[in-house]
Design brief:
By secondary structure, this protein is mostly helical. It contains 13 helices and no strands. Helix 2 packs across helix 12 and helix 10 runs parallel beside helix 11. The longest helix is centred in the N-terminal third of the chain and has 37 residues. Pfam families: BPD_transp_1 (PF00528), OppC_N (PF12911). Its main location: membrane. This is ABC transporter permease.
């Protein structure tokens, strides 16, 4: 799999750029406290709404300008990267684990377990995930932990359905029949033989899900229901800048560009992984 990914990456120039963008975003997220030029919450009303460095009226040391409270936009975007990556990765991991467990159990045991879990999935699909997350966080209050839990526990359905379909096919294969014949129990078969064979589709779905979780986090933060107000996020920057689109467009535009570039890069990388995981698509 890693060799096939590298081979596909060499042939796909768009994916090379996407991986580079992701690497840059991860670097900024990890080292934001070291490379950010200013404290993201440091206010200076004398410098409020200063434009980016190439425009007249800009302030030295504030490359992307300042917001309504004189806070450095670049520093807030850098620190917002940490929140977006943390929520995206943690929520995706949680939903992947929950969905994989439900999918494997449903596909292998079938019967009432499969019916119960799939009907639960149908019920959850009847409600838009972002609306369900919005309602829960509105009750629990803004919190990074609550956001991760809510997004993670509302995003398991896609994993469960794909994994269940894979397991339904795998459970009839010869190696599973042989494992039963030598006395392996159901949990042993699932852990030793089924789980290793669903890693590729899980990785593909997870890559695309990270982008969706980042957008969901930005949406909730935009509505004021994400993390606490003192934590800079891309969504809160968008919310702060919506009232100043004419006079201080840079507040919303640069944070929106960060969301767009990150999610686009992740989606392009996810498409690459999907093509590698699907031999027919990869050879086209």
């Amino acid at each position: 799999m890693p060799t096939a990914v590298l081979r596909a990456l060499r042939r796909n120039h768009a994916a090379k750029v996407a991986v580079g963008v992701i690497a840059l975003v991860v670097f900024v997220g990890l080292f934001a406290p070291l490379i950010a030029p200013h404290d993201p919450n440091l206010q200076n009303l004398e410098l409020k709404l200063r434009p980016p460095f190439w425009m007249s009226g800009s302030e030295s040391g504030y490359l992307l300008g300042t917001d309504k409270l004189g806070r450095d936009v670049l520093s807030r975007i850098m620190y917002g990267t940490r929140v977006s990556l943390l929520v995206g990765l943690a929520a995706t991991l949680l939903s992947g684990v929950v969905g994989a467990v439900i999918g494997v159990v449903s596909g292998y045991y079938r019967g009432w377990r499969e019916q119960a879990f799939m009907r639960l999935a149908d019920v959850q699909l009847a409600f838009p995930s972002i609306l369900l997350a919005l309602a829960i966080i509105a009750v629990l209050g803004p919190s990074l932990l609550f956001m991760i839990l809510v997004l993670g526990l509302t995003g398991w359905v896609a994993y469960a359905r794909v994994v269940r379909a894979e397991v339904l096919s795998l459970r009839e294969r010869e190696f599973v029949t042989a494992a039963r014949a030598i006395g392996d129990t159901g949990p042993q078969i699932m852990v030793r033989h089924l789980v290793p064979n669903i890693v590729a589709p899980l990785a593909t779905i997870g890559t695309l899900q990270v982008a969706a979780m980042i957008v969901a986090e930005a949406s909730l933060s935009y509505l004021g229901l994400g993390v606490p107000p003192d934590v800079p996020t891309w969504g809160s920057l968008l919310a702060d800048g919506q009232l100043y689109l004419r006079s201080a467009w840079w507040i919303a535009v640069f944070s929106g560009a960060a969301i767009m570039m990150t999610t686009l890069a992740i989606n392009v990388t996810g498409d690459l992984l999907r093509d590698v995981a699907d031999p027919k698509a990869y050879t086209r």
